[in-house]
């Protein structure tokens, strides 16, 4: 299994600002993902973070709004840019050791945009 | 049709009851299947992987039916601590698809 930490755990931000969320895995993993979870809803995949190349974004999510970095096999960041209240959500990082392998989640970052 | 569908519930059951959840998936090429548990305001945690032969872990039994494209989770002798949302997850190539989750509340 993989142990994943995220920071910050929560933040309250003003609209128009940006927040960068960090995700650290305790071991090298092949795959890292970023999800968003609105209150009372299931997880929505934002993008797959690819090591050494651009992230793969899902429909409805774009790089300008959610730039992602993955400089190595244990670390990734997600930036929520030019925030609006609609971006208020929980952002979750996850990792898997391989395709179709078990996915492990970080504790999430609770974001409130005023 | 959603790629992964679950009955959102809630399922309210008394302690000690047996409860079963189903989850259907649309992509016949899906490779791996999982049940996750998510408590309120917490991240999802793996409950069990689901294998073609079925698997059991204590009070929990998971089954996969590839022909009908569904997976199931059976919880026997429900405990109050089983109250949570149960997420069905289906993995294809390079992507995991989550169901909306089924809420379970075990009542004293």
Q: What does the average pLDDT of chain B come to?
A: 93
Major β-sheet annotation of chain B: 6 strands, mixed
Q: Helical proportion of chain A?
A: under 10%
Outline of chain A, from the CA principal axes? globular
Q: Total number of helical segments of chain A?
A: 0
Largest two-chain interface: A-B, 20 and 21 residues
Explain what the structure shows.
The complex is a heterodimer of chains A (114) and B (108). Chain A has 114 residues and is an all-beta fold. Chain A contains no helices and eleven strands. Chain B is mostly beta strands. In chain B, strands 2, 4, 5, 9, 10 and 11 form a six-stranded mixed β-sheet that branches. In chain B, strand 6 (55-57) and strand 7 (60-65) form a beta hairpin. Chains A and B meet through strand 5 and strand 10 of A and strand 5 and strand 9 of B.
Give a brief description.
The complex is a heterodimer of chains A (114) and B (108). Chain A has no helices and eleven strands.
Which keywords apply here?
heterodimer, A: 114 residues, mainly beta, 11 strands, B: 108 residues, five-stranded antiparallel sheet
Which helices and strands appear, and what pairs or packs with what?
The complex is a heterodimer of chains A (114) and B (108).
Chain A: E1 4-7, E2 10-13, E3 19-25, E4 31-37, E5 43-49, E6 56-57, E7 68-72, E8 75-80, E9 89-96, E10 103-105, E11 109-113
Parallel strand pairs in A: 2-11
Antiparallel strand pairs in A: 1-3, 3-8, 4-5, 4-9, 5-6, 7-8, 9-10, 9-11
Chain B: E1 4-6, E2 11-14, E3 19-25, E4 32-38, E5 45-50, E6 55-57, E7 60-65, E8 70-75, E9 84-91, E10 96-98, E11 102-107
Parallel strand pairs in B: 2-11
Antiparallel strand pairs in B: 1-3, 3-8, 4-5, 4-9, 6-7, 7-8, 9-10, 9-11
């Amino acid at each position: 299994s993989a142990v994943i930490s995220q920071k910050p755990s929560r933040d309250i931000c003003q609209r128009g600002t940006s927040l960068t969320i960090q995700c650290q895995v305790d071991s090298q993993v092949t795959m890292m993902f970023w999800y968003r979870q609105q209150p009372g809803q299931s997880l929505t995949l934002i993008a797959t973070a690819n090591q050494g190349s651009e992230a793969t974004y899902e429909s409805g999510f774009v790089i300008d709004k959610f730039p992602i970095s993955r400089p190595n096999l244990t670390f990734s960041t997600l930036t929520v840019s030019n925030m609006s209240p609609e971006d208020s959500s929980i952002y979750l990082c996850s990792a898997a050791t391989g395709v179709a392998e078990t996915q492990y989640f970080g504790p999430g970052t609770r974001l409130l945009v005023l | 049709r959603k790629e992964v569908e679950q009955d959102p519930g809630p399922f309210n059951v008394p302690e000690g009851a047996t409860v079963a959840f189903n989850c259907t998936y649309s992509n016949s090429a899906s490779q791996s299947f999982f049940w996750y548990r998510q408590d309120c305001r917490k991240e999802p945690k793996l409950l069990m992987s689901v294998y073609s032969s079925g698997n059991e872990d204590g009070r929990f039994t998971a089954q996969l039916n590839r022909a009908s494209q569904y997976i199931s989770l059976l919880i026997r002798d429900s405990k109050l601590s089983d109250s949570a949302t149960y997420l069905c997850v289906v993995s294809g190539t390079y992507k995991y698809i989550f169901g909306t989750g089924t809420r379970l509340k075990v009542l004293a």
